[in-house]
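User: Show me an example of a complex going from sequences to structure tokens.

Assistant: Sure. Here are the input components:
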Amino acid sequence: MDEKANLAEKLALLDAPYSPAIVGYLNDYKLQIVKVLGEFVWHTHNETDDFFLVLSGRLTIQLRDRDIVLGPGEVFVVPRGVEHCPKADEETHVLLIEPRETRNTGDVESELTVEPADL
Amino acid sequence: MDEKANLAEKLALLDAPYSPAIVGYLNDYKLQIVKVLGEFVWHTHNETDDFFLVLSGRLTIQLRDRDIVLGPGEVFVVPRGVEHCPKADEETHVLLIEPRETRNTGDVESELTVEPADL
């Protein structure tokens, strides 16, 4: 990384919810920001854990047996192999960290499947 | 991770600056919080990049050719092999992410070399 990334400034460049963008890399991991609004899609990453940090708003990570509700400054790591579905009732800003090759919808092919933009 | 981590609440459990604590793991990476105050020690991680996210306060990451100054919500990744020395003039709270086996002082053995606590 040559320059720092101000996450709020980078988030202001994003339009639609669930369109992640890469702000940097940590070894073979991508650092992504994403706006969350509404419900995503149930999916599983069988090959990796999945890191979520809420920057603003309120994120619910639905698991099959319970919900994890995150406010600003709260972190949750979904363990590999655990099915989950994020949702938010208000626009919520999230930092995601996962290996570079990780697909946003995991094992599911969906209209929400996208490649992240590179900011 | 079984439960979410509220980073501010976890930071309130820490006493001294430069005594990192682990709040969770992402695959083979540790998620660490640390209070920064004063100057750390110049060091290099030859085997890994080093992720810094400022949660509160103001962190200066000194590099040999320039300073990176981070406020809340700002991220910088020190590339592997790049000598650096963090410092802060006020108490600053940071999220650090690096491989589990990474030593806090990198290639340098120092009185600041510590194993992180496990919260």
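The lines above are the inputs; the final block is the predicted structure for all two components together. The mean pLDDT of chain A is 96.
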